[in-house]
Amino acid sequence: MDWLQEWAAQVDWVSFVTIPVFTGVIGWLINWSGLVMLFSPVRFHGVSVPGMREFATLLPRKLQEVPGLLQGGIGWQGIIPARAAKMGSIAVDKAIAKLGTPAEFYQQLEPDRIAEHIVTTFRPEIPQLVDEVMRREHPRLWLDLPLSVREAVVERVQAQLPSVVNRVTTEIGIHIDQLLDPKIMVIDHFQENPALVVRIFRDFGQRELNLMVRFGFIFGFLLGIPVALADSIAHQWWLLPVLGVIVGWVTNALGMWLIFEPPEPRKVFGVTVHGLFLRRQDQAAEVYARIIADDVITLERIGDFLLDGPRGDRTRQMLATALRPAIDQAAGPARGAVRVAVGAHRFDTIRDSVATEAVGHTMTPFKDPVFSARQAEKIRDLVARRTKELSPRDFVEMMRAAIREDEWMLYAHGAIMGLGGGFLHLWIFGVGG
C-alpha cells in the first residue's frame, strides 16, 4: 500500500475534491439548460442574416436541423416546438391512428344528438333564410304570394327539417373517412400552436423533468470521481477539458435515458429500472386525451375541417344534395304548378340556393361551445382509453418523436458545457488536482 500513501501525500485535496463538485454543478446546469433548450422559446427568436438560407443548404444535414438556419436566421427555437408538426405526424401514426378511425371518432360524437341539436338551432332561422333566398331569386313571385302561402312554404321546410338533418348526419357518417383526416388536423394544429406540444410534456411530466435536473448533479458528481483520480495521476493540462466533454455528453445522455428508457420494467443488478415517463402512462394518457379533446380534435374543428378543409367542397356538395329534396317538397301539392309558373330553371335555382345557403347553418351547432364541451368528453374518454392500451414502445415513440433526431444538439450542448467546466477548474486550481 506504499503507492497509495505516496499518491495521497502528493494530491492537492482541495483541488481533488472540487472536481466532482464542479462536474456535479455542471451536470445540474447541463440538464437544467437542456430543458430550456427543449421547450423555449415557443416561437423562433433570432435575427435574419442575408444569404444564410443558401449557406445552410451547404452544411451537413445535422447542422441544417438547427432551428432557424434553413429559415435564413441565427437564433433559437425550443427543439420540441420547432418539431411540433413532426411530433403531430408521428403521434397520429403511432397513436391516434390506433385510437380510432374517423368513423369511430364521429360515432363517439353521437350523430343523433348532433342532429337533434342542429334541428333545435336551425329551425328558428328557416323563415329568414327562405325569405332572403326568395327575395333574391324571385322577388316578384314571393311578394305577390299571400302571407298565408309564404308561411305555409316555411312551415313545410321546417317540417322536413328533422328527416333532412338525419339524412345529412347519416351522409356525413357514411363518407366521414373521405371527408375527415385527423392526421392533417393534428399536424396543422400542432404547427400553428407549438405551445400545445410543450403542454403535453409539461402537464404530466414536469415532476419527472425536475427529477432529471436533480439527477444531473448526481450523475455529474459520480462521473467526476474517476475524472479527479485520472487528473491526480496523469498531471496533464488537457485532461480535465477532454474528460469534461465526455462527462457533459454522458450526463445529458443519461438524463434522456432516465426519462424514456427502458420502456418496460427491467432488472439491473437487482434494481428495477423503468423510464420515468413510462411509469405514469395512465396519467399521461389522461393529460394527452384532455389536450387532444379540448384543443385538437374538437367538434368545432371537425366542423371547420369538414366545410373549409381540403375536402370542404366535397362536403358542401354532399350536404346541398341531401338538402335539396326538402325544398322540392316544400311547395307541397302545388310543386308542379309552381315549377311551370316560375320556369324549371328558375325553380331549380331557387331550390339549389336554399340548399346551398342551408349548408353553413347545418354546421353551426358544431361551433356551440357548450355542446362542443359536452361532446368533447366522449372524445376524451376514447383517446384516454386507447392511449392506455398502447404498448410502452409505441408510447415512448409518440412522446420522443419530436426530439429524437435533435438529441445530438442536447448532447453537444452538454459536451460544450463540460469543456468549459474543465477549463474553468483548470484556470482556478491548475493541473494535477
Automatic annotation (TrEMBL):
<feature type="transmembrane region" description="Helical">
    <location>
        <begin position="236"/>
        <end position="260"/>
    </location>
</feature>
<keyword id="KW-1133">Transmembrane helix</keyword>
<feature type="transmembrane region" description="Helical">
    <location>
        <begin position="13"/>
        <end position="39"/>
    </location>
</feature>
<feature type="transmembrane region" description="Helical">
    <location>
        <begin position="408"/>
        <end position="429"/>
    </location>
</feature>
<keyword id="KW-0812">Transmembrane</keyword>
<keyword id="KW-0472">Membrane</keyword>
<protein>
    <recommendedName>
        <fullName>DUF445 domain-containing protein</fullName>
    </recommendedName>
</protein>
<feature type="transmembrane region" description="Helical">
    <location>
        <begin position="211"/>
        <end position="230"/>
    </location>
</feature>
